[in-house]
């Protein structure tokens, strides 16, 4: 099968803010995404563990695969928020079949 | 009211057990899903119970008075809190507003524990206090967000503002409390009775396990609380005392009997850690969650469970006319 | 039977509360693990209870009659459903067969809610109806899959076919229902009695919280249901009515008393959303889950809870000889 | 003691149902969070109950005797187990030590099931046996780790050693058992009584569902147990019998009445699968978890539930003076 | 430590169909895999959230690392199913130590 | 936005041993990490499924993004443990903004 190169975007985001990240993705025309759970972590602003009581401390991993142009547009949109929202943004290459889907 | 007896009630002892386990770094932990499930159960149970009691006692002017005092408290209390957090706490405006929102709102579990303690002491608060609790969850949060907006906080404006109001008023815990209160109010008595083995019989036992978890969570958060200065921690003790005493005083002046006045003090003195944090994280992403969760969960909540409830109850008895 | 009183029972009100919360887009939600846990509890509890009642009442020819009618219904009902879904619904053969499988199977929670309503109305169905419920879970699914195979659906053939039969008959909910039914049948009475505070006392309360979650799930699925046309939604109302009335009629003709006849109608009119979807997703991956889950969960389930149960009960009383 | 009646008790039947479901490869499964929640509930409940019974009966020299025997057993039993696992089992030193640690520790659920069976048979063990259970959880694990260290096992040394001791003694299940025992001991009787509908009323029902899950887990692990040879599986039957009989004998010699002696035998014969595996995985990462979990969970646990408990009880009655 | 390049395969799959994806992987000689949970997502066929009641709507992330040949064999086997099963297949490069394991 | 290339480290580790992996990461100066849940898997030492009762059989995915030097240091530290701990270690390239954070 022929595969085509696309960009894989991952954003670690607080659960209450996940909807915003999704909205930004949809706004630049990204067609699909998947949210994955996380359990615990540590970074510049300290340590956290999953908290489903209020959800305030839970973090989700937003995953989306898209073409380079849309990925760039998304990064431009989301970059100003990285610090205030406490996001972690990762970009990498990925090969997919069915290029038109992504 | 007997302080030692309160401290020896299983509910409080399980809370202490959780705190001890966290401090000795035991790996004891309760699955998140179970904790969430228990908190939903507790809210549905007190909602139903409150509604049932109001249905039995009938509506009265007293209910409106209590609701009015509750509303007033939750609209006003964020203001001095904000000022103190700015001046004494040295917080920036956004952080101060975020914390003030938590103190303007209420803690359901503190209320529930308080009701247990008051009932055991022979001064049960009126059933309608559950409705007052539901009423007091959101206005304080809104006032906090307005303080941040005035302070130039980025988030609350226009379309986003209305979305936030929506999130605040249709918050899951508010919906569940109000919904089960209404169900308790309108459902036929005998049909309700058949749900009592679940919603009433298990209540204290579930509360024990839930407070075990809250002890673990509060103590672990206390350990992770790097952002908190001593001054802020001090305010997390001062604010509940101040707000609680104001609450009891106003309620007594308004004519509520001591049990309900104490309950209103407990509500005023409590800080939200379920409804408020999620809304504030959304509305004020620049505010530091370590601060507001640290204050409300790691300091104010344990203080209220162990001392505040007894303090407000004693004071309510003392100033009762 | 009193329609208003049924609607005001806490079980139904919690369902409505969940639906309302979902429609106003509240973030109220029950952890998946808790929902699954409650559904396992409900199945174990009704299984035990049914087995115990049969052990007390003894076997009778009536049980075989009810089982025969149930089996017949679940083998036959997918056929007209398939035809209607093809003609009126305009679905392709695979989708029509997938949906027909759901209507051939049964919904445990609809049954349980129906039993509550019937018992409250003074016409409790016989204990063996739980065995009939278990019996009716799988045959309809198999018929649905055979319809798809005949239709040239890709999946059901040879080795895979036997694997699927396995999945269908050893489906978790079937195992649990049958297993606890047998336990209720054979376990000593006094030992069983000691489990009753859990399996019997809590039943209605747990059902309340579970239906709260089902209200949330059904209403959210309704909102996400883009695949559903009006014609398909109409069929999701027509099929339960049709199947339920057929079920009550056959059961009455076979000589069951009104309570059990109503219960059989509720089973016939209900559509599976626990056992069937998992098997169908496996067997007919090309079928659109949005369609069959949308129909059974977002339309038929709420319809049955709010109207269907009362309708079939009234009809059963009406045609009783 | 009546073997058939024991086998027909719902608790055991649910365990068998789980095992059957796993063997026919049903997809029946209980969410992990629910299983963990139930195990926490069971530990808190037996802790509270034991503490309450000791508070009622008062301290006695018998408690010290039972504690002494329990401690002795858990310090000694790993030694012959280690030797047998090396010689007969053909395990390397690390694996043998890891398994010995599990047999030195105890299984809370086996104990709880045993108490149910003994109580039903009219010979309930004394309340302080819960304290003995808590006492016996850790020493055997420490002895096992020391055997591994002596054997040159890499992990247990210096700073890491003290960290491991910490993990062992502040293990979640130990904390919860001891903590709730103390709460049951000190909390006022009437306050405790209000938690009983939850902690006492639901106990057997929850145990049924929990054992359903344990049946699933044990049987699935049995299927996945590729590492286990026949000789090792044989030892997983021999060790509980041997340890259990030794336990009953010592307890009887020390003067305990048959119910408590049987309970001590059940403890001695049981193998840990909650506290020990986590600690051993940390302390002896080279040891094969397939071996120690396979032995304790897939062979010894089911054996004890179905046969061991009855065997030790009968033996305790038989040798009673 | 020396690292060797391998292929990382990720497949987002409905829970009831996960066993099939695993069987296809084992059939081409892939030696190991890990399944990870997901919470929510959106794509061409609409929006879903995790559903443990029936499991029909839950999705799992299948993750496997293997050599290029086996990865190709797997992709060839699974590609015809992508549309009917509603799978999302991602391929990327990854470095591992202990090359013989993968 | 400008992005910078970093190394993405993933380690699949038994829950009781996760703390050790984190400690090794912190010891080489890695500043942040995230733990993610897993459900099931199979490898050379057989099949497992998530087990929260004892936690002994649960596995977590440790995820960390860092620069090449620290990644190498981490791999050197952790490699001797791969077999005895039963770890799976994956390394890949990833692009990030805010280079100084990683
Ligand atoms: N571009 C994408 N990036 C990440 N996940 C996706 C993407 N497209 C689809 N998905 C996931 O795959 C599921 C099925 O996709 P689809 O078949 O397009 O509806 C979606 O619900 C998402 O969870
Ligand atoms: N090639 C692989 N791809 C993905 N996960 C793997 C792979 N090999 C092993 N694993 C995971 O690592 C665990 C331990 O591997 P092993 O030590 O080979 O048994 C397995 O149970 C899988 O969850
Ligand atoms: N280098 C990293 N690698 C993986 N996850 C990270 C990294 N840095 C931060 N995170 C995650 O992002 C969260 C927020 O990061 P920070 O804003 O730096 O506190 C942390 O708690 C981690 O869960
Ligand atoms: Na307050
Ligand atoms: Na049906
Ligand atoms: Na033992």
From TrEMBL, chains A, E, F:
Protein name: Nitrogen regulatory protein P-II
GO molecular function: enzyme regulator activity
Family matches, as Gene3D superfamilies: 3.30.70.120
Example of a GO biological process term: regulation of nitrogen utilization
Superkingdom per UniProt: Bacteria
Species in which this protein is naturally found: Sphingomonas lacunae
Automatic annotation (TrEMBL), chains B, C, D:
Keywords of the record: Membrane, Transmembrane, Transmembrane helix
InterPro entries for the chain: Sbt_1 (IPR010293)
Transmembrane segments: 6-24, 63-85, 97-120, 126-148, 169-187, 202-220, 232-256, 291-318
Domain of life: Bacteria
Coiled coil: none
Alphabetized Pfam families for the sequence: Sbt_1
Protein name: Sodium-dependent bicarbonate transport family permease
Species: Sphingomonas lacunae
